């Protein structure tokens, strides 16, 4: 019998499945977090990202207040997010709404292409920055330019066909006066100068209701007076045109003065060599308002197929020098200015204009410079035509015209028709898509002073965009009409609009506060960070319009703001126990001050709107019959909107 002995040592046992352990196979120990820890880390990451986004938005708003607009890249990002919004893609809308939405998307696409081709070096942002800084620093002389008027000049020249036609009509009337003067002194040799000087497409485009004015040079005085009166009527009906014409003349003067300066020559040489204009160069030593004017000129040149305005400005400067040195020509210039201002302020005086035209045609000094003036008119008309023929400008105008037609007119009969279903489409698509782009809205800081002893400054308040919309929006309209059939007392009407917003819920995190309390000889100061949660904010605004009130188009009867509940949680402070004790008192004080600030801001916005509406409608009303009965408030608002669209997109 065989015996088997198993002998083993505990320190030398070899397992056949054993694999040698090396450093490259050592894996780090991963400890699985609990669900609570994962949620906590996820919340911390979310807050960190939100804090960075809030800081970026606050910084961007601060830049905008300083006049620094978003860069081209940021504008592209905003437009792209809007075009690719899921709300627009998923929400069903009506057929008219689909056409309008398609036109809006096409317009935004054109604007993106315009940013790349017309504004590659962000010259528009630079012009706005210089114009705003000049106004803030009061760095403007009597001949300086302002931001809004400069933007109006650019908008009217590039996209307002009626304004361009107005400029062309002014030039053509002057052309016919000069042509008739030349013809009378050259035995008919000056006949047809307007047709020879101006391209045929310009002549055809500007004939208007009286084609005889441009078809031949045999123009009677009645035709000239009719067109002159039409020019002044258009300017009086559109106060913006008057300010734009004045601003355009101001810009031309600035361009003329700076044309021969050494810094501008240097910039012009850089541009001819293919280099971008560097108007921000501190070595130029040019005031901000002049920089804004020069940048406006370059913007206009880019939208006119890169036609340089300097040759035209130089010729215009030469003519201006001649006018200053020639006494007879200067007297005619002064008479023209006086007559223009009198006509704009009062009614059109036919006899005065006939007398002035006859004086020009009988003057030999005008005939001496007739060729120079004619060439200037031709150059000006060529520049205006270049604005009109720019492909992007034409495309933008066509898109705006298409949107206007879709909004106000029916496709089968071409009549203006109210389309309430479009309001529903906008409410369900465009409004949510716009709010979706507004992630955060920073609020300005405000100070709470309940007494001389207690002062609190609250800052870094940033609202989330998804909390801006209320749960319910309520509108109430009423129209009260009073008339007296048995007396000669005129009728009166009062319209009212009640706007109520219910249940606005919002939360503001990382709100900074500074508290100061002075009691006797002791001062208590504190700095801290808090979270403010607003529950159930309600805003009610009542606006009325009285036909007997000639100073205001509408007035606010009341503005009431109420916060149902306000929670303030102090996160950081030096005196934490103090706030725990006085939290109810502090909450009531802050709640009361927030409602006051909201009411103050809303009232201020409505007052500014009333000023603008009164100024616009007042100017139009004064240009016609002053005794005409004023329409209702809502009809006036619709009249303003329609008037702007018709004149801007006609």
From TrEMBL:
Q: Which GO terms describe its molecular function?
A: lipid binding
SUPFAM superfamilies linked = Bactericidal permeability-increasing protein, BPI
Name of the featured protein:
Uncharacterized protein
The highest taxon in the source lineage is: Eukaryota
HAM1-like C-terminal domain sequence ranges: 562-615
The protein's matches in InterPro entries, at most eight in alphabetical order, are given as:
Bactericidal_perm-incr_a/b_dom, HAM1-like_C, HAM1-like_N
Q: Where is the HAM1-like N-terminal domain?
A: 64-182, 229-550
Protein source organism: Rhizopus azygosporus (Rhizopus microsporus var. azygosporus)
């Amino acid at each position: 019998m065989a015996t088997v002995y198993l002998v083993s040592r505990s320190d030398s046992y070899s397992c056949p499945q054993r694999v040698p352990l090396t450093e490259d196979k050592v894996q780090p120990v991963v400890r699985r977090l609990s669900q609570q820890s994962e949620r906590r880390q996820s919340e911390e990451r979310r807050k960190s990202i939100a804090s960075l986004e809030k800081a970026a938005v606050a910084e961007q708003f601060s830049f905008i207040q300083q006049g620094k607009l978003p860069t081209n890249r940021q504008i592209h990002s905003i437009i792209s997010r809007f075009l690719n919004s899921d709300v627009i893609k998923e929400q069903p809308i009506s057929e008219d709404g689909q056409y309008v939405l398609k036109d809006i998307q096409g317009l935004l696409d054109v604007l993106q292409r315009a940013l790349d081709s017309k504004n590659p070096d962000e010259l528009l942002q630079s012009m706005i920055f210089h114009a705003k800084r000049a106004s803030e620093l009061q760095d403007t002389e009597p001949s300086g330019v302002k931001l809004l008027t400069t933007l109006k000049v650019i908008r009217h020249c590039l996209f307002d066909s009626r304004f361009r036609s107005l400029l062309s009509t002014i030039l053509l009337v002057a052309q016919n006066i000069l042509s008739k003067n030349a013809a009378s002194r050259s035995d008919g040799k000056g006949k047809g100068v307007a047709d020879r000087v101006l391209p045929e497409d310009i002549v055809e485009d500007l004939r208007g209701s009286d084609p005889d004015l441009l078809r031949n040079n045999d123009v009677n005085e009645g035709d000239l007076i009719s067109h002159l009166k039409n020019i002044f009527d258009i300017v009086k009906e559109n106060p913006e045109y008057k300010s734009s014409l004045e601003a355009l003349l101001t810009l031309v003067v600035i361009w003329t003065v700076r044309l021969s300066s050494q810094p501008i020559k240097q910039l012009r040489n850089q541009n001819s060599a293919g280099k971008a204009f560097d108007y921000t160069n501190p070595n130029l030593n040019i005031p901000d308002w002049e920089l804004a004017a020069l940048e406006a000129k370059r913007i206009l040149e880019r939208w006119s197929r890169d036609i340089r305005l300097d040759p035209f400005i130089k010729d215009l400067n030469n003519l201006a020098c001649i006018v200053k040195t020639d006494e007879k020509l200067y007297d005619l210039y002064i008479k023209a200015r006086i007559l223009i201002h009198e006509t704009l302020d009062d009614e059109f005086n036919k006899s005065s204009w006939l007398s002035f035209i006859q004086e020009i045609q009988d003057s030999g000094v005008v005939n001496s410079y007739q060729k120079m003036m004619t060439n200037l008119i031709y150059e000006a008309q060529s520049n205006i035509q270049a604005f009109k023929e720019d492909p992007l400008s034409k495309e933008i105008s066509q898109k705006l015209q298409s949107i206007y037609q879709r909004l106000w007119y029916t496709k089968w009969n071409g009549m203006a028709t109210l389309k309430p279903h479009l309001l529903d489409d906008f409410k369900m698509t465009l409004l949510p898509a716009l709010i979706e782009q507004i992630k955060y809205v920073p609020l300005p800081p405000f100070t709470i002073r309940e007494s001389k002893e207690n002062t609190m400054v609250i800052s870094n308040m940033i609202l989330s965009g998804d909390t801006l919309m209320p749960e319910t929006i309520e509108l109430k309209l009423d129209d009260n009409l009073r008339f007296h059939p048995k007396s000669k007392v005129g009728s009166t009407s009062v319209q009212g609009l009640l706007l109520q917003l219910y249940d606005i819920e919002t939360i503001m995190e990382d709100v900074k506060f500074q508290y100061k309390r002075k009691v006797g000889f002791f001062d208590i100061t504190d700095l801290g960070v808090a979270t403010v949660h607003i529950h159930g904010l309600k805003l009610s605004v009542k606006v009325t319009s009285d036909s007997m009130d000639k100073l205001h188009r509408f007035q606010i009867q009341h503005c009431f703001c109420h916060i149902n509940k306000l929670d303030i949680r102090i996160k950081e402070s030096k005196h934490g126990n103090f706030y725990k004790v006085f939290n109810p008192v502090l909450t009531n004080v802050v709640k009361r001050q927030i409602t006051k600030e909201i009411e103050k801001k809303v009232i201020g916005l409505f007052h500014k709107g009333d000023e603008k509406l009164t100024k616009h409608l007042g100017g139009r009303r004064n240009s016609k019959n002053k005794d005409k009965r004023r329409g209702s408030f809502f009809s006036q608002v619709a009249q303003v909107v329609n008037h702007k669209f018709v004149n801007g997109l006609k």
